[in-house]
Amino acid sequence: MDAATLTYDTLRFVEFEDFPETSEPVWILGKEYNALTGGTGPTSDTGWGCMLRCGQMILGEALVCRHLGRDWRWAKGQKQREEYISLLNAFIDKKDSYYSIHQIAQMGVGEGKPIGQWYGPNTVAQVLKKLAVFDTWSKVVVHVAMDNTVVIEEIKRLCMPWLDAAGAYGESEGVGELNGCLEGACAMAEEETALWRPLVLLIPLRLGLSDINDAYIDTLKQCFMLPQSLGVIGGKPNSAHYFIGYVGEELIYLDPHTTQPAVEPSEDSQVPDETYHCQHPPCRMHICELDPSIAAGFFCRTEDEFDDWCMRIRRLSCNRGTLPMFELVDSQPSHMVSVDTLNLTPDFSDSDRLERFFDSEDEEFEILSL
C-alpha cells in the first residue's frame, strides 16, 4: 500500500508529454486511432474555445434581452421562468443544443476552421449567423455587417421579410392594406408576418494594425453607452474576452478561460446554472491593450429601437475629434458586393470563394484614417 501511495504521489508531479501530431495511424490494443482527433474528438475546449465561448456570451445576452428583457438579472437560488430554462438549454454542452460548443465548432468547419482551431471575432459572428437560422424558438435575425458598413435597407428587408412579399419597400405611402391585413403578408406563414423580427447586429471591425488606433477609443466607449449595446468580443492575440463596458480608461470584461465541468441537466430538466453566471467582480484591462480586431454587437427588439440606434450612431459620427468605427448608410453602396450576388448557398459550402469575405484572421479590413 505504501508503495502504491508513493507511486501515486510521484505521478502528481510528472509533466506528461502531449501525443505527437502525426497523420500516421496509431494502433492501441488492436484498434486504430487517429492522433489528430484522438479517436473521439476533443473532450475539452481548453486552449482553443475562448472566442467560441465569447460568441456564446454575446448571443446569450441578446437572447436574454429577447426573452427576459434587458433589465432581467439572475439571482442564485431564485425560481426562474420557463423561458430562462429554455435559454440555458440552447447553450448547454450537448450536440443537439442550438448554440452549444459542438454546434459552433462543427459549423466553423464550413468557415474553414477545423475543430480545435482558434477563432477570430469575424468567424464566430458568421457561425452564429448561420446557427440562428435553425433557432425556431427565438426567431432572431443575426446580421453580420461587413466592410465596416451597416446598410439600413438590407437590415429592414431581413427583419421585415413581408416587405418584399408585399412589394412595398421604399414606397412613400408605406404598405397598403387589403381586407384589414397587410397586403401580401396574409398568405405568409404566421412567424413571417411579425412586423419586426428581433435583430442581433454584429459588426466585425479592425481598429488599427497591431494596436488600437487612439482615434477610435472615444467612439468605442460611446458604443458601450448605447441602450442597444451587447458589448464587444475581442481581446488579445489568442486570448478572447467579452467586453461589456468601461470605466475611465479601462475596459470591463468577462474572461472565459476558467475551465469548468460540463453541466448536466437533472431528471426534472432543471439545469444547475451557477457556472453560467459570473459570481465575482468582472475583470478590467487598459483600453490600449485591446487587440484591434473586434466585433461589436447590438440588439434591437423592435423597429423603433433600430431607428433609435441609427439616430444615435449618426449623432456619434458628427462628433468632432472622434473617428467613426463604421459607416451607416441607407442603401448598399455601388462598391459593395453582396453575398447574394455571388450566388452563395445558405450553407456556404464553397469555402474558397467565401474566404475573401469571412476569414477571421486574414480579413482585409479597410483601415479608416483621420
UniProtKB/TrEMBL annotation:
GO MF: cysteine-type endopeptidase activity; protein-phosphatidylethanolamide deconjugating activity
EC number(s) on file: 3.4.22.-
Broad class of the protein's primary localization: cytoplasm
Matching Pfam families: ATG4_LIR (PF20166), Peptidase_C54 (PF03416)
CC annotations in GO: autophagosome; cytoplasmic vesicle; cytosol; endoplasmic reticulum; mitochondrion
Localization of this protein: Cytoplasm, Cytosol; Cytoplasmic vesicle, Autophagosome; Endoplasmic reticulum; Mitochondrion
Catalytic EC class: hydrolase
Keywords: Autophagy, Cytoplasm, Cytoplasmic vesicle, Endoplasmic reticulum, Hydrolase, Mitochondrion, Protease, Protein transport, Thiol protease, Transport, Ubl conjugation pathway
Chemical reaction(s) catalysed: [protein]-C-terminal L-amino acid-glycyl-phosphatidylserine + H2O = [protein]-C-terminal L-amino acid-glycine + a 1,2-diacyl-sn-glycero-3-phospho-L-serine; [protein]-C-terminal L-amino acid-glycyl-phosphatidylethanolamide + H2O = [protein]-C-terminal L-amino acid-glycine + a 1,2-diacyl-sn-glycero-3-phosphoethanolamine
Annotated function: Cysteine protease that plays a key role in autophagy by mediating both proteolytic activation and delipidation of ATG8 family proteins.
UniProt similarity note: Belongs to the peptidase C54 family.
Protein name: Cysteine protease
Source organism of the structure: Astatotilapia calliptera
